[in-house]
Amino acid sequence: MLPEEMAPFIGKSIGVVACEVEKGSIKRFADAVEETNPLYWDEDYAAKSKFGSIIAPPGFFGWPVKLPPGATFQRPTDIADPPETTDAMRAALAKAGYANVLDGGIEYEFFLPIRAGDALTAKSIIKEVREREGKTGKMAFVIIETSYTNKKNELVAVQRSTAIYR
Amino acid sequence: MAKQIYFEDVNVNDELPPLPKIATTRMLVKWAGASGDFNPLHYDAAFAAAIGVGSPIIHGALKRQWLVQLMTDWAGEQGTLKKFSCSYRAMDWPRKMATPFTPEDGDTWQCKGKVTKKYSEGEQHLVDCEIWIENGKGEITTPGTATIMLPGRS
Fold this sequence. Notes:
Oligomer: heterodimer
Largest sheet of chain A: 6 strands, antiparallel
Order of helices and strands of chain B: EHHHEEEE
CATH topology of the largest domain in chain A: Thiol Ester Dehydrase, Chain A
CATH class of the largest domain in chain A: Alpha Beta
CATH topology of the largest domain in chain B: Thiol Ester Dehydrase, Chain A
Strand order of the largest sheet of chain A: 2-1-4-5-6-3
Structural class of chain B: alpha+beta
Helix content of chain A: 10-25%
Distance between the termini of chain A: 14 Å
């Protein structure tokens, strides 16, 4: 069973990423969503708000600045730092016959607003692995938990994303 | 911005103002660049066909962000999104572009929500909601939940 094989990796770090929250990237993100809230791009408007400056929409955590070109940031498992845990997880999944992965969903807890100019550290761990027999065969749910802290080491958000392997 | 809503104004079973969205191939390209998700499943027709989804599908995370906007628009500037979740249960396909800026006719998605609980924890006035996205046929493709904190009038 996959969960037993994965047990040694639960709670292990699979990535630590430095993200900078720059106002241009906030604007581009808000624009892609077709957001209408001027807090995300209008400095004068934001200055008069309770936030005092431009903030990011919940769900935007900046852009990874220290990854080499070509490294993607789509999923925490893409980072693989250190690589051993992620490699072992992928090997266990492959051995159990899982070839395809889908984005299953996400959960957030938000603690503090994220502002333009913030520098965040995103730390990801393997939180949980479950396996289940579905109508179309077996499926594995891998839950990656990422915590985001700011420069003052305050926790700003926790994210749990579910990857569905089949 | 819309007028601020207060905790006292909210009742269980209230429906949130729906947020309509039209996903287009253009929007998916913008989202890929803005989010860093460069999976060809979302922009390469041959790739999408080869893995069995027909044509490029909308990013789950873009649908997530529509639902975040549903909540933050409703909560207003004095409200705060505390918790959020959603599941990508069914695939959605964007409209193609008719001109560089206008989409072809087709589906409009509706982001919707309903209040399931209102309660106070210490000083915090909290509201739980069930949220979801309906496709053009009215089918729910993306269900979720959210908790917001609202200001009180007093």
